[in-house]
Specification:
It is built from five helices and nine strands; from the N terminus they run ββαααβββαβαβββ. The protein has 204 residues and is α+β, with helices and mostly antiparallel strands.
Length: 204
């Protein structure tokens, strides 16, 4: 791939219900409100929530993320995307690209939803959209989704979207659910074959 800094990635991504875009300066308070609301749920699966203990730390996160999108940096916080319901506008969570290898290119997808918006299919819609975006716009050759075997809510997303289970890595993590050795599921896609139909467009 050419220098990734020069890669044109039009945003936002628009679906029937959602607007999905990179964080920008000033989003910290919105992000922090959702983290506070969802702390008990998030802290079980995402230990990083301990690092977002106030609005200033949340604002630092979104500014670092904004810079990563400009520089195409492969370092944390990677490439998060904020998810908003379009009507009425409301922040519902984050989806994003992690561990990007620009040479292939290949990447992982991660996601979380604020507690009050779970069970509505919004994260499935967002992951579907950015999966299609990654293959069509970024021209990736492989996408992975990894999760704890005990994270039932997380693993149903790739299963709904036709990702294939590549492997179960035994004793691969300290499970945030048990604080003991746990296993990691690796799901993948190498194309868009049989992905559930979803119309999306970009507005950039």
């Amino acid at each position: 791939m050419k220098n990734p800094i020069l890669l044109n990635l039009p945003m936002p991504i628009l679906t029937k219900h959602l607007l999905i875009r990179p964080p920008k300066t000033g989003d910290g308070s919105t992000f922090f409100e959702a983290v506070k609301e969802s702390y008990d749920d998030l802290n079980t699966a995402f230990p990083w929530t301990n690092r977002i203990s106030n609005a200033d730390e949340a604002e630092a996160f979104v500014r670092e993320s904004e810079a990563n999108w400009i520089l195409k940096s492969i370092h944390e916080p990677y490439f998060p995307l904020l998810i908003f319901i379009k009507e009425p506008v409301y922040f519902v969570g984050i989806v994003g690209y992690h561990h990007v290898n620009w040479q292939i290119p290949a990447l992982e997808i991660g996601y979380w939803c604020r507690s009050s918006q779970r069970g509505r299919g919004l994260i499935t819609e967002a992951v579907n959209a950015i999966t299609q975006y990654a293959f069509q716009i970024i021209k990736v050759k492989r996408i992975e989704i990894r999760c704890d075997t005990l994270n039932i809510k997380s693993k149903v997303i790739p299963e709904r979207l036709g990702y294939q289970l590549d492997a179960t890595l035994k004793n691969h993590r300290i499970s945030s659910f048990t604080q003991k050795l746990g296993d990691t599921l690796i799901y993948s896609r190498t194309d868009l074959k049989n992905i559930p139909c979803l119309d999306f467009k970009t507005d950039g």
